[in-house]
Amino acid sequence: MKRKWFQLVSTFVHNGYVGFLANSNIYTGFLKNLCGPGLNCHSCPASLFACPLGILQNFLISIRILPWQALIGSFFYILGFFLFFGLFLGRFICGWLCPFGFLQDLIYKIPFFKKQIKFPLHIENYLKFIFLIFFVILLPLFIINEIGYGILWFCKYICPAGTIEAGYFNLFLQPSLFFLIGFVFYLKTFILVIVLILCLINFRFFCKNLCPLGLIYGLFNKIGILRLSLIKNNCNSCKVCEKVCPVNLSLPEEINSIECIRCLNCLKICPTKAIKLEIYKPYEISDCQT
């Protein structure tokens, strides 16, 4: 229950601009220069912050057209953002702070057919890397449009959070925009519907299989300052922790896997308290396995 409250509060922090109720416009103030840690669309009328993936794509686009002197500040901001949130929180952001992750949790609670979805050849292990490498990095960096500028490929063609928050929310506020929609909107609507159906069937399908932002944070799970540890002498291999893992990890061996969203179910259920949350101190000798 505590995690749900964190998720709810974080969703309202990410989307705390109420001025749109008066003018139907998105917020463009100082906070939009900063990134919120979760997957939350920059163009949502209620959004106070920029999206980390959007900022990263914009930076890669700008490399082609701006001198390095104009980019150095953005480079260090983006690097510092991911290092700070990655090292301090990792995928705690996914489990406790991400608005779109919270939406997936709520959708999965709807009574419906539930099943663990597996793809042929275990391609689910690679999909997030494909989306990150191609749609977030390579395509914005190398492909330009007819006016010589790059495209935010993931934001424009894929992101389901953007479809809900920027697409449908803006249409609701300004129905006149309906006459401007075209193929891209229908494509993203199709992707959104498929993702939501799969999230209804399989817990956090988007987080586990598609989300590039979750992958970036997950890369820090093993090296972050705040991480899970296993006290091997306390573990009796009962596998209770594995049974309550919502992302189906092989526990306790994979407590710091890239896929772990840090829900802490394993820590709370462990009968022998073999799993604990600790602040990593490299200068101390520990009996825990990280």
Automatic annotation (TrEMBL):
Protein's recorded name: 4Fe-4S ferredoxin iron-sulfur binding domain-containing protein
Any single Pfam family the record assigns to this protein: Fer4
Record carries keyword Translocase: no
Record's Gene Ontology CC terms? plasma membrane
Signal peptide coordinates: none
Q: Which InterPro entries match?
A: 4Fe4S_Fe-S-bd, 4Fe4S_Fe_S_CS, Electron_Trans/Redox
Name the UniProt key words of this record, in alphabetical order.
4Fe-4S, Electron transport, Iron, Iron-sulfur, Membrane, Metal-binding, Transmembrane, Transmembrane helix, Transport
Q: Which GO terms describe its molecular function?
A: 4 iron, 4 sulfur cluster binding; metal ion binding
Instruction: Give the 4Fe-4S ferredoxin-type domain ranges.
Output: 226-248, 251-280
Coiled-coil regions listed = none
User: Does the UniProt entry include the keyword Membrane?
Assistant: yes
Transmembrane ranges, per UniProt, are 129-152, 177-203
Enumerate the PROSITE patterns for this protein.
4FE4S_FER_1, 4FE4S_FER_2
